[in-house]
Structures are given as C-alpha cells and as structure tokens.
Amino acid sequence: MALVDFMSVLHKSTTRDYLARVNDPEYPKDKAAKLAKQWDYDYWDGDRRINYGGYRYIEGRWEKVARAMVDHYDLPRRPRILDIGCGKGFLLFDFLKVLPDAEVYGLDVSNYAISHSKEEIRDQLTVGSATQLPWTDNYFDLVISINTFHNLHNYDLDVALREMERVGKTHKYLCVESYRTEEEKTNLLYWQVTCEAFCTPKEWEWWFQQTGYTGDYSFIYFE
C-alpha cells in the first residue's frame, strides 16, 4: 500500500470560488446538494453551480491518467480492469486506447450516468452499489475508484473498502477527498455537494487498516 498521486494534475486545473458556491441565490449549497445526491441529470449535466455542469468526454483528458496507471502497475497483456464509481465510463474508454486488449468493467450507482455513458463500452458498465460488487474474489488485475468512496456513509464505506479488496488481486487504487488544515476543511465543506466521509489523511489510513484494504491511494485537497 502506498501513496501514489495520479489525480492532482486534473484536480488543480479547475479554479473554484468557494464562497460563491455557498451563497448562490438560485442554487444555495443545501439546494445544490439535494439535487446532486439524486445522481441524475442535475448532477452530471445540469447547472455548473450544482456539480459538473455538463460531464462530457474530452479527448486525451483521461488517457494520460490511464497511461500513468499502466506505466506504474505491472499488468498482464489482457488485464481485467474495474472502475468503481465509473460515471460515464470515460476513464475506462481511454484505458482501451492504452491497452486495446484489456477487459474493462465499470459500476456506478447512477442510472443516468450509465445510460449516457460512452456507447462503445456501455455493455460493460453496470448500475449498482460499491457495497455489493457482482464479481467473484480476485477477479480483477486492477481495481480503481476515483472520487467515489468519500460519498459513502461510514457503514457503507466499511463494506465498500472490503469489497474492493475482495474482487481485486494485487493492484488497487483509490482517490478520495481529504483535508490537512482548517482552511482546506472549510473549502471542502463549502465546495462539496455529495461528500459524507470527512476524513484527514490519517483517518483515511485508519480506514484502510480497519478494513484490510491493501491498495494504493491518493487524496484530493481543496487548497
């Protein structure tokens, strides 16, 4: 298990106005959060003040992440790869650009995301919960989860981490939101609309030890 950062380069490319997020007259924070947690149109393709404001495929954006993971992990020529919280499947689609012979699978709680996913891999995506993965033990050569597990309540987070460990072989990676200072904690509280697990890095590491998660990880900070 190691701290491996694949994601900060994408996260830091966005400029954020934290106070505007909280004080917006049309979509104040509580209203935005209620809409976002439906995991439907508003979350993915609705107003930017709610969440993504249009989650569209951008050529090359996720390919560099996929390539960094392939370069880092010693995967077989035809690996099985699972993305827990895959959204519209953009990362998995770009994995196939790097490893054309890979078997990619994705799972997401959002019916909307799966029905609006990349058509080329839609048959490999499943609507479901991270707490009940429909695959056998040690099925995947690489299991990833990006910006998903912090959206779970503690009782589900415990189960989901154990499930991720169960279906993966050696290589696993997850990225979650976290904070190191009071300023970062405040910014996280202001910006997030779906986060339920507000943990420092040390607390996240406690979760990994508690659940037996042995994979790699990294943190997103709102600086």
Automatic annotation (TrEMBL):
Full protein name: SAM-dependent methyltransferase
Keywords in alphabetical order: Methyltransferase, Transferase
GO molecular function list: methyltransferase activity
Example GO biological process: methylation
All residue ranges annotated as the Methyltransferase domain in the record: 80-212
A Pfam short name: Methyltransf_31
